[in-house]
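ok trying again, last paste got cut off:
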Amino acid sequence: MKQWYYGRADQQSGPVDEFTLRGKIAAGEVTADSLVWCDGMGDWQPLADVPDLQQPLADGIYAPPGTSPSPGLGGYTMGYQPPTCGLAIASMVCGISAVVMLMCYGLGALVGIPAVICGHMAMRKIREAPYAMAGRGMAIAGLITGYSAMALMLVGVIFFIVLISQNFGSF
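nice, full thing came through this time. structure:
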């Protein structure tokens, strides 16, 4: 397999095999304007101009998401799985915890607020990431459960205040 070199931040890196280079491309470490070179190439070229790195590998082990499966693997391909945003995971966990705390202790807003904050930060990070990032569904789940727990807690507090004022308002 070819050994590749790539230029990043005015520094040459490598050699790396093609699998490793494709992983760096998928993770956004090597971009379309990064210079790459391997034996047989005349000069360093931008990644966008290198046709060998624009297609799946010939043996079908790696295929970018959305490409057709390789017949050599029985219709199964291993595509790149983008990293999941940690804030999205935190948002979902906090949102679920907020609902549980609301039902058990009536204190859903204590964890609902971080769920909402993490959810909005995750959505922004996913939207503005220079590479594909997973976790949008988890961030949305965290937002929904966080807002719901806070709203239900607010309704409970209002109900409690009305109940208290009716019972003790006649003194």
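cool. Residues 57-78 have pLDDT under 50 and may be disordered. The CA atoms of residues 160 and 166 lie 10 Å apart.
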